[in-house]
Specification:
The protein has no helices and 32 strands.
Length: 358
Amino acid sequence: MSDYDPVTSTDQGKKVWTTQEPEVFDFSVRITSLLKVEGDKGYYGVVGLADGRIYTWELASDFRKGSFYHLHDHGLLHIAAGSEQLLSFATDGTASIFKVDSKAVRRKVFVSKKNWPTDVAISGKGGIAAITDGCELIIFDVSNDQMSVVAKHHGDGGSFSGVEFSSSGQFLAAGSQGKVVICDTRSFEFRNLSWPGSHIDVFWSSSNQFICSMTHDRELHIWDLESGKDFRLGGFGRKVRHVAWNRSSTQIAAAAEENVVIWRINDEDGGFDSRPVEVGCGADCGRCSTFFWITDTELLISYEDGSLVLSDALTGAGRFLLAGPATGEAVQDILVDGDSISYLATQTTLMELHLPSY
C-alpha cells in the first residue's frame, strides 16, 4: 500500500474525506456501460448511454472533450469491446458495431428473435463476436462487412445468459441451465462443463486456465481447464453482484454484500484456500456496488452511499478516497487508466479521480 495519505477529517471514525475534488461530467442520461478500448491511435474511454448513444474520448486527453455517436434508437443495454471494435445491444433487440478509429457505425447488424439479446461479447482481436439470444448462442465473423454466422449452438431447453471470450480469444464460454458451454474458436467445437443450477454469467482468468460462473444459488463455480478439477465457492448471504480475477489469475474476488470476498489459489494443490479474505469497510457505507483490481493486490471498492475505498487484498488495510461524492450517487462502474487515473460512472455522471502514486 502506498504511503500517500489524503485524510483531512473524519466522521465518527468511519468516513474519511479527501482534499481532492473529482472532475465531473453530467450526461443527464442513465449510464449503462463504461469500458476501455484499444485503437490504432491509442486507448479510448467509452460510455454507453440508455438513450442509444455512446460517448468516446481519447484517454490521453480531457475526458470532457469527447464526442457522441448514435448506435441505437433507444434502450442501449450493454457494450463489449474487442480490438478497436465495440459490439452493443439494446432493448429493441438489435446489435450494432462501432469502430473507434474510423468512427464508423454499423447499426442493426443483428435482430433478436426474442425481446432482446441477453449478452454480447467480442474477441480481444476483434475478429469474432458472440450473441446469446434465448436458447441460441450465435457466433459471427466480424472481421469484414459480411458479418457471416460461423457457428450456432442450441441450449437444449435452457436459455443462455452471460457470454465471454478468453483473453487469448481461443475460447468462448456461455452460461446456461446446468452447464457452462465452451467453444474452441479454431474448430468451433463445443463441450459442456456440467454443474446443477442456473449459470448467470461467466468470467475467464487472464491466464485462460480458469473459468468461473456466477449462479442463481448465490455461489461461484470454477473449473480448472488444465487439471480438470472444479471448485464451489459459496457462503454468500445474497446474490453475487460482481466478480473479477486479479491480473495474475492467482486471486478471484466477489461482492454480494458489504465487503469484497477474495479467494487465493493454493500453490500446493492448485485449489482455493478454504478461508477467504474479506476487505472493505463493513456495513458503515451500505452494500458494495462494484470494485476494480488496480494492481495484482489492490482494489478500488465503491459503496451505495457513494464512498470509494482503496483496499489491500493481502493485508486487509484500506483507506477512503471519497466519502459520499457531491453527486450523491453510488459508483456503478470503474475504469482505471494506467496507475494514476480512474474514471467513475455513477447513474448519470462520469468522474475523474487521481489515484495515490505507488
